[in-house]
Amino acid sequence: MTILVTGATGNVGRQVVEHLVKRGADVRALVRDPSKASFPAGVSVAQGDFLDVDSLRKAMSGVSTLFLLNAVVPDEFTQALVALNVARSAGIERIVYLSVLHADVYVNVPHFAGKFGVERMIEQMGFQATILRPAYFIQNDLMIEDVITGYGTYTMPVGAKGLAMVDVRDIAEIAALELLRRERSAEPLALERINLVGPQTLTGTDIAAIWSDVLARPISYGGDNTEGFEQNLKQFLPAWMAYDMRLMGERFLTDGMLPEAGDVERLTTLLGRPLRPYRDFASQIAGSA
């Protein structure tokens, strides 16, 4: 019985592979360029692409469980639907899909709306799936590390509603645990959604205060300017993606990204340990600054 991990060379996917291998799973990794892939011993590598249907068919042959992770790209929705259709044809019923928290709320944000469409397909096609809905990744703030440490300003548009930021390492471990739970179950398991959140819901001011503490100097919050946020992102991201991120930031300001009652306790039980807090990430950055 083989678990296929897509997005295997990315930060989440790579860690999912590592967790699965440590727990004795038979793992296959889907990659575009095998020459650039480095995985633990025993991991088989399948070369392919979501839009190359023949390569997907080959990669999914003999697979029992699929971890579906799609990058934020213009045709993300199409890629996911193609992958799910090929999976169905290959007889794969057990799936763990990485969606996003509030996919059904941030309806005007392209990559949120696309993920919600994928959720609907998974549900209506009757897959035995776990849909993971992570909040904002703590590690996204690596993009502004230099701004925080060099200019004393936290510029992500987090706002005053708060985000339940989650550590990528916790996301990957929970994904691996869910893949193994479904892979090893003798009976079909019902579709389930799990919100992936951090132990705290933090505002922009809260995060600036954490940085002030760990860096031992004042860090201000200046992230409510979503137009400026978009323009800054356009320096290193395509314009469509920068705009997508701006729309997301605007929803952060109006809606926040809030956990539901019991989310933190549920994840703590799944992991058997506390969730990693934002302060741990900030302290690690501060220690290497």
Protein described:
The protein is an alpha/beta fold. The chain is 45% helix and 14% strand. The chain has helices spanning 11-22, 53-60, 76-89, 110-124, 145-151, 168-184, 204-215, 226-233, 239-255, 263-271, 278-288, and strands spanning 2-5, 26-31, 44-47, 63-68, 94-98, 128-134, 153-154, 192-196, 220-221. The strands form 2 sheets. A 7-stranded parallel beta sheet has the order 3-2-1-4-5-6-8, sandwiched between helices. Helix 2 (53-60) packs across helix 3 and helix 3 (76-89) packs parallel to helix 4 (110-124). The longest helix is centred in the middle third of the chain and has 17 residues, at 168-184.
List the helices and strands and how they pair.
Layout: E1 2-5, H1 11-22, E2 26-31, E3 44-47, H2 53-60, E4 63-68, H3 76-89, E5 94-98, H4 110-124, E6 128-134, H5 145-151, E7 153-154, H6 168-184, E8 192-196, H7 204-215, E9 220-221, H8 226-233, H9 239-255, H10 263-271, H11 278-288
Parallel strand pairs: 1-2, 1-4, 2-3, 4-5, 5-6, 6-8, 7-9
Helix pairs in contact: 1-6, 2-3, 3-4, 7-11, 8-9
% residues in beta strands: 5-15%
Strand order of the largest sheet: 3-2-1-4-5-6-8
| Cα gyration radius (Å) | 19 Å
Biggest β-sheet description: 7 strands, parallel
Report the principal-axis shape: globular
Order of helices and strands: EHEEHEHEHEHEHEHEHHHH
Oligomer: single chain
Helix content: 40-55%
Helical segment count: 11
